[in-house]
Amino acid sequence: MSLPAAFLSAIEQQIPSQRCFSDPLSMLTMGTDASFYRLLPKLVIRVESEAEVAFILQQASAHQVAVTFRAAGTSLSGQAISDSVLIVLGDRWNNKEILDNGRRIRLQPGVIGAHANQALAHLQRKIGPDPASINAAKIGGIVANNSSGMCCGTAQNSYQTLSAMRLLLADGSAVDSADLVSVSRFRHSHRELLEQLSQLAEATRNNSELAAKIKHKYRLKNTTGLSLNALIDFTDPLDILTHLMVGSEGTLGFISSVTYDTVPDYPHKATALVVFPDVETCCQAVVVLKQQAVSAVELLDRRSLRSVQHMAGMPDWIEQLSDSACALLIETNAPDESALEQQLQQINHAIEHFPKEQHIAFSQDPAVYELLWRMRKDTFPAVGAVRENGTTVIIEDVTFPLEHLAAGVNRLLALLDEYHYDEAVLFGHALEGNLHFVFTQRFDQPKEIARYRVFMEAVSHLVAVEFGGSLKAEHGTGRNMAPFVELEWGKDAYQLMWQIKHLLDPQGILNPDVVLSKDAGIHLKNLKSLPAANSLIDKCIECGFCEPVCPAAGLTLSPRQRIVAWRAIQEQKRQGLDTSQLEKDFQ
Asked: Does the predicted TM-score (pTM) go above 0.70?
């Protein structure tokens, strides 16, 4: 179905033609993100101002046109793609304003996370969220997905460190929670909406069973569904609104700027690697370390260690570890050397009685730090590098209650074996019971899609039902987990999420089928294959990490976009299709 002529006419009159794209090459290359889904948009609009976003939203509301917002496109669950209108941030969303001597920072959504930290570094501060994609991911996506990472846990994510937000609703109206005039105006113009939010919050707090469930769920790392904790954490409806936007993945509004309360970035740190003989011992150590002054505790199963053991610089003894071995990468930091030394003594004492297979002692040597963190961070690309052509890499992201972490790890490993994901690796942010498991999957064969379907159903039942965990800890619900939100949360909480969605997006135009979907099979549709195209690019997993550092950024297609296009050209040639126009546009 094509876009309404009246909508297109209005856009053409307001947005310069050089920032509107509807040709096949642009739809393909600009419409691709890091997930294993592909939708081709009908129109891509590169926006350069809030006024343009407001205008597009007003027109989309008037003509009932679905829109999706896109920052860096590093998201993994299908939340940054569209088969309607894709609104992509241009180059003029990079403002950074340091406030209160670095205690706060106001950022536009186009700022790359690492660039925000670079601006704060001289003040020994940083933003709380620290996703692995921080060198490529932009603030808009970091907030919209409530991304976290290795060190931030549940205490320093975007939800917990949000100071203020400027946002646009589906009708294009704006409010800035840091601007008293804007707030006063919004409280008057949107009195009814704010009253309804207050009523939802009061009803939720008065439902003791539901309120208890929400508190339990956010004791864990959890990004499944909408941020219902906003309804019990706050009473001011504007606070509720801004915190609902965190983790909403563009389904409730557009985040125009965010002000973070920053966190300390201590200069003194030390890192160690401890290898335990089995998963149970490893997870018992995690429980003990939870009580210590550690900033990160990363778990790596034997498969993860095996995936990196042949990389340059890795210790020879990794190859000799037992098949049941399980490791923890431990980091601690402090404001000065004496505090650090005291913390190291306490941490070493806490875990000295545990049996160990190998141990790299705490070190402040940058070379050791880089090696150990490379061991952890290279596990994901290591799986991608050895995958068969035609397969895609999937990284899933769940949380078990910490007291059940060992059982959860072993049950997940058993499921991976049962469904013959022999190449899979498992690692994660152990302090929060947050596990990532990486595996490869074909989507070009019905039997392979069927295997994926039953595997995901088994994982969802294991995590959400048996252990009361969360199916998404930090990667966002997206399309991938939308069908399982009710399974995890139950009927009452699920219906509450739909009430919030209908209240803030009554026409359902904001990122439909993301987070909440009526389609129980949405996670099995529009699956993206990665067909063989050229040995130079076949190992690319389209993560987009290359884009910010490419010398040609902003001048032509990005590396990811070139690879996407070349794969499509080769696939269409194999199908006997005419690719002459696509090749001409590519050149």
From this structure: yes
